[in-house]
Amino acid sequence: MSSMNDQPAATAEAVLAHIGRKRRAAGRTMKQLAWRWRANYYRRAATPGGDGFWTLPDHAGRSYQDALRMLHAQLQPQRYLEIGTANGGSLTLAKCPSIAIDVAFQLDHFTAQTLNKPVSLLFQMPSDTFFERYSPATLLKGPVDLAFLDGMHHYEFLLRDFINTERHCLPNSVILMHDCVPTDAFVARRNPDDRTLRAFSAHPNWWAGDVWKAALIIRRLRPDLRILAFDAPPTGLVAITNLDPGSNVLAQAYPEAVAAHRDLTLGAFGPEAYLRLMGARHLANPSEDLAGLLRA
Ligand SMILES: C[S@@+](CC[C@H](N)C(=O)[O-])C[C@H]1O[C@@H](n2cnc3c(N)ncnc32)[C@H](O)[C@@H]1O
């Protein structure tokens, strides 16, 4: 006959492992509760006339610079284009012939590395003016393989930048859009000078703007595209491929789409619903096969 006392004694290691598991689970639960509490608190603190404050946990994946570095290494682009260069942080990562467009380059911060590539063509002008005057495929003697759109943080600008860039790409080129996964209502405000929700934000110096709406419009109107969003700090990175350089869908829908999304806020849309729609992924591993993921 067996009794409780006949059970084999647990080893000290097993007991410690069990305690460790319990503690980790409790830690996770506390974190989740804390986030839920904060989110509810901020929701209750809704501003008059607005749809209040919301927040998501900070992105926990590799930074957008890491993701860019990985994509340059894996895709080995032959021709790169970026809109929004500032002090050259992202341009430095490109090793191939490159076009950089910015209304105001911060050249005093460029290092020798920034221009350390066979061709660096810098255009100091608004991106719209660049596309009116020049053809990147002509300048680079071939279609753009990789593009990084990080210029003006208003959705109608990013939408135009995407439309104009796609025309000069190949179907398997990749267009990256920065700042499309903002982490709270303050970071996602349209007007950078609007400080209404600043006190609530864990990131009072960030501004992603409302470019997430460009990603939403592209997602809604172009089901033919492959779109993936990554939890790349600080404000996410959206990658788009399976491009169609001949498509006029977005250009034709542009005025209507911009008008239809003017008053939409991410709080009203639902930040979690947006993440689901964009196929948000955790980018933890620096050796993850991003190129394969995009081509899958
Ligand atoms: C966030 S910074 C770019 C940072 C850079 N890509 C990096 O990761 O190191 C945004 C830049 O976009 C530029 N910009 C703003 N509006 C623009 C426009 N309409 N056309 C081109 N550049 C623009 C600004 O001058 C600014 O330097």
Describe the protein's architecture and organization.
This protein has 296 residues and is an alpha/beta fold. The chain folds into two domains: 36 residues; 240 residues, Rossmann fold (3-Layer(aba) Sandwich). It is 36% helix and 14% strand. It is built from ten helices and eight strands. Strands 3-2-1-4-5-7-6-8 form an eight-stranded mixed beta sheet, with helices on both faces. β4, α5 and β5 form a beta-alpha-beta unit. The termini are far apart. The relative contact order is 0.14. The N terminus is likely disordered. Bound molecules: S-adenosylmethionine.
Q: Any idea what the CATH architecture of the largest domain is? A: 3-Layer(aba) Sandwich
Per DSSP, the total helix count is 10
What's the overall geometry? Answer: globular
Work out the number of β strands. Answer: 8
Structural class: alpha/beta
Mean pLDDT: 90
Rg (CA only): 23 Å
CATH superfamily of the largest domain: Vaccinia Virus protein VP39
Question: What is the terminal-to-terminal distance?
Answer: 59 Å
Helix content: 25-40%
Please report which band the strand proportion falls in: under 5%, 5-15%, 15-25%, 25-35%, 35-45% or over 45%: 5-15%
Strand sequence of the main sheet, in spatial order?
A: 3-2-1-4-5-7-6-8
**How many domains make up the coordinates?**
2
Largest sheet: 8 strands, mixed
CATH topology of the largest domain: Rossmann fold
